[in-house]
């Protein structure tokens, strides 16, 4: 693109967004929904500022039809977000399950986590106490199906310390 | 009514109602440090210089503070729900005429310097609203952002963005 911005700046009164310090651009980005914030990454500096900004997301749905690009992006967002409500729908394929387990551990701060499974046997396999324990570290409120009483007890002991609340259906 | 005089960088004097200045963290600190609230201090004889704010910008800031007189000033930085903040109609009309001009930028910078949290929040929110629903080329044009990505980098970003569509 042949931009003639330099020539134009002299001519008209201009809001020089890029003349603002990074902190202020980051502050402006904090008001944008993810979609628009992602789209605002229009040069290397804006990209870097976006990458370093924190997020608050109201709701995130992680579904089984997720592809690798989305995994990368999810990882970026996971580490710097506070998320109100996460729904995690576990897929029924070994490869994806491994990826799901990995990515959920990247999250740092979830207020409410809902976990769903397509297959109940699979659920018992995944919901071992150590994995559940990891979940209880990142989320304050967890809704989860199919967890064994033993696993739940293990987690309960830790949750007392972490002040987590959880509900389960047997 | 106690008046306090603010002096802009171009040496214009602005007598402002004491009460209004509670909205500015920077000025509030100065008032306290200079003991301007004491009964035996002659506040009118002690103008506050603001070397970083031009007169026309300060005038806008005061106008904004007058409209928002008595609004609660929020404590600390709570960025939790920024995406959901709504710019009230009055403020939107107040910002709009200068939105893409240098005046809005100066107002935003002044809000930051004077530590007027509510003004900074609404002003930044108004700027962020101009990004909403815009295509890449539109943002580039409106905000004068030249493209410096390689086609490969641009493609990677485009694919990432698809996730959020």
From TrEMBL, chain A:
Pfam families linked: F-box
Record protein name field: F-box domain-containing protein
Organism field: Pristionchus pacificus (Parasitic nematode worm)
From TrEMBL, chain B:
Annotated InterPro entries: SKP1, SKP1-like, SKP1-like_dim_sf, SKP1/BTB/POZ_sf, Skp1_comp_dimer, Skp1_comp_POZ
Single GO MF descriptor: cullin family protein binding
Record keywords, A-Z: Ubl conjugation pathway
Disordered as annotated region, ranges: 145-165
Cellular component, GO, one term: cytoplasm
Alphabetical list of SUPFAM superfamilies matching this protein: POZ domain (SSF54695), Skp1 dimerisation domain-like (SSF81382)
GO biological process per UniProt: protein ubiquitination; SCF-dependent proteasomal ubiquitin-dependent protein catabolic process
Pathway annotation: Protein modification; protein ubiquitination
Source superkingdom: Eukaryota
Cross-referenced CDD domains: BTB_POZ_SKP1 (cd18322)
Matching SMART domains: Skp1
Basic and acidic residues bias locations: 156-165
Transmembrane segments: none
UniProt record similarity statement: Belongs to the SKP1 family.
Main function: Probable essential component of SCF (SKP1-CUL1-F-box protein) E3 ubiquitin-protein ligase complexes, which mediate the ubiquitination and subsequent proteasomal degradation of target proteins. Regulates cell proliferation during embryonic and larval development.
PANTHER family for this protein: SKP1 (PTHR11165)
Name of this protein: Skp1-related protein
